[in-house]
Amino acid sequence: MKQDMIVILDLGSEENPRLAREIRALGVYSEIYPHDITLAELNALPNVKGIILNGGPNHVVDGVEIDACSDIYGCGLPLLQPGHKGGAPWPTDAAQRKAVLSEFVFDACGAQPNWNMENFIADQVELIRRQVGDKKVLLALSGGVDSSVVAALLIKAIGKQLVCVHVNHGLLRKGEPEQVVEVFRNQMDANLIYVDAVDRFLNKLSGVAEPEQKRKIIGAEFIRVFEEEARKLDGIHFLAQGTIYPDIIESGTKTVKAVKSHHNVGGLPEDLDFALVEPLKMLFKDEVRACGKALGLPDSMVYRQPFPGPGLGVRCLGAITRDRLEAVRESDAILREEFAKAGLEGKVWQYFTVVPDFKSVGVHEGVRTFDWPVILRAVNTVDAMTATVEDVPFALLQKITQRITSEVKGVNRVLYDLTPKPSGTIEWE
After folding, report:
1. Residue at 74 is within a domain
2. So where does ATP get bound (predicted)?
3. For the domain that residue 81 is a member of, what is the CATH number?
4. What average pLDDT does the structure give for the chain?
């Protein structure tokens, strides 16, 4: 890496990710490291210009107050110690906080604002080529933001040495499998294997109503399909994954318990012995999107909404049927289209439709119907731990209702979910 770097040592602060993001927003690269990094390990890092020892509420581990190694203090690099060893706490005012960071990063450390996506991409292309050589890399390409950006970056670095496998399990949104093929095979000339596994997945899910069981079936079957495709290929030495920096941070540090473990293609058999390629593992989500834009991916892919791993399988409530799944897919497409027309695309964090497994009496063109309701959900959140409901204009809800009830087969009602998180969750299953 050619960019200057500010190292943040984790001394128990819960705001280390925010701090790293703020430094990167100044145009200077920053990474978080454990409090007990040795001087030798520090010296092995490229272009370190300064160190922030960030104190915080989790500064006691197993009854002992943690601190940096003593020789870090005498390493000769500029140090900033907010909330640690008498250091002043961070200002609460955003402008003052930015001023403190700017003074330290630029004046005290002399760092250059040379962290940008163009430099990041150039660095990663060089690192990928060095790691992979002339070998092949396998990637499970879901069409989600992370896997799509990884694919675009690897195509730029190694071209046809990348083998992408896109498994269509029938639970994607309308047009998404076709978009993956169009963008990667037709536009980017990727080495793409398209697997139509719709019948296979839906047959496995037939009659299964319990949400966790559905999730397990979908996850396990995906691994089996991916494994079968991998075994057909020769010369694969690497597996690419869309791991990003929050995945690593959330998996836990010495001062923060794991939020969750992250396995992008978890559970593959040990005899599929691949080394990992994870070129996005030091990027935050907004940086991943910026990288995708710089690599030329379409906005519809780069700014794709958060989407559950089991896809529409957890929005077709209860036992999945093909006709009800199609009602979810079509109503979701209408909702997304109308939100885009109304200027809400990109302003509302997540919006989708749900179709439950019950029916009600209705009337269509003077004839009695007995059909499903569609539930609309639109929420905003910062961390997905809590969420508020979007105040959608009533006229827009009326328009969406009219379109869904007239265009989506088997639907006669539309409902709007007003429940925040808590007491509800973002998804229904």
Report:
1. yes
2. 142-148
3. 3.40.50.880
4. 90
